[in-house]
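thought: user wants a sequence for this fold. calling inverse folding tool.
action: design(structure=
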């Protein structure tokens, strides 16, 4: 095959240098992700966000990026870039693309690493994310209807719903649970579930209610003998999207007016736990929140449910307004 006559020697040098830079940036990204101790799901999300940014800036070397490219990327996202519906992305979605870039540059510009001359994301602000957990929960009767719908579909779907609402797991954590993740406490009084490398790369332990464990045992005993409790076997070999669809479809069948999702059941877990006497620390440990402030968001909802300002005013005026 003959050489392209339009490619000069300088052009070929430029192409090779560009390829070397791209390869070097890929190695830097791999080093960054390896150093973060993130869950597999978070690594995928970080890599997707970083690669989309690289494509947006036409693979300009990461070391030459300025705050202008970051802000342009953020503006593109806000306007609907990388949105399947071509509608503006929600603040949380925009933040999910920008946060990995901020982490990458904070890591790479550290004086002990010094892969980047400066951090171009220092002045870039993440969009304010409204707190939506205040109303994204199911009532006790709605949980009952949803679980009844799931139970009619079989023990697997029933256990999926129970696990989400009783254990407060994230959907990515749920689909990763294996039979080897359950273990008894030192006095054999209860069973615990070990959640490994969840959000933020942290491990945590969740106590499994006794009746839920009995159902788990029955379910596990239905596995083929070679995949029983003594072997490491995924309890729910499904994708996160499949679980989301199972919960969504069950919500429609149960005819509740809300559109439940696995994350709604996580909110429901926190809200019902606090309403019924669990401490903030207990809920924080179960949900795996890094900061107690995240858990405290649920306290506002709980306090309003228990007794809001209008209830106090009514109590004060009871002798006058109902006579």
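)
observation: tool returned 323 residues.
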């Amino acid at each position: 095959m003959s050489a392209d006559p339009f490619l000069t020697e300088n052009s070929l040098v430029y192409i090779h240098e560009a390829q070397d830079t791209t390869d070097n940036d890929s190695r830097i990204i791999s080093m960054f992700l390896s150093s973060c101790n993130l869950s597999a799901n978070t690594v995928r999300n970080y890599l997707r966000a970083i690669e989309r940014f690289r494509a947006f800036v036409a693979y300009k070397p990461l070391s030459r990026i300025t705050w202008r490219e970051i802000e342009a990327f953020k503006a593109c996202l806000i306007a609907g870039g990388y949105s399947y519906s071509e509608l503006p992305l929600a603040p949380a979605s925009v933040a999910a693309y920008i946060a990995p870039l901020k982490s990458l540059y904070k890591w790479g510009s550290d004086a002990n690493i010094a892969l980047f001359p400066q951090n171009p994301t220092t002045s870039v602000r993440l969009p304010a994310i409204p707190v939506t957990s205040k109303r994204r929960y199911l009532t006790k009767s709605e949980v009952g209807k949803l679980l009844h719908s799931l139970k009619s579909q079989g023990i697997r779907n029933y256990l999926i719903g129970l696990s989400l609402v009783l254990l407060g797991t994230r959907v990515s954590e749920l689909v990763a649970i294996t039979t080897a993740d359950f273990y008894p406490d030192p006095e054999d009084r209860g069973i615990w579930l070990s959640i490994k490398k969840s959000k933020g790369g942290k491990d945590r332990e969740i106590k499994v209610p006794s009746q839920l464990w009995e159902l788990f045992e029955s379910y596990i005993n239905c596995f083929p003998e070679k995949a029983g409790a003594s072997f490491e076997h995924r309890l729910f070999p499904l994708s996160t999207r499949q679980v989301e669809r199972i919960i969504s479809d069950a919500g429609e069948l149960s005819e509740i007016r809300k559109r439940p999702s696995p994350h709604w059941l996580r909110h429901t877990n926190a809200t019902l736990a606090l309403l019924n006497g669990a401490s903030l620390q207990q809920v924080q440990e179960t949900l795996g929140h890094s900061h107690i402030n995240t858990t405290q968001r649920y306290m506002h909802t709980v306090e309003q449910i228990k007794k809001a300002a209008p209830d106090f005013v009514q109590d004060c005026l009871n002798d006058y307004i109902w006579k």
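thought: summarizing for user.
answer: Here is the designed sequence. The first helix runs from residue 9 to 35.
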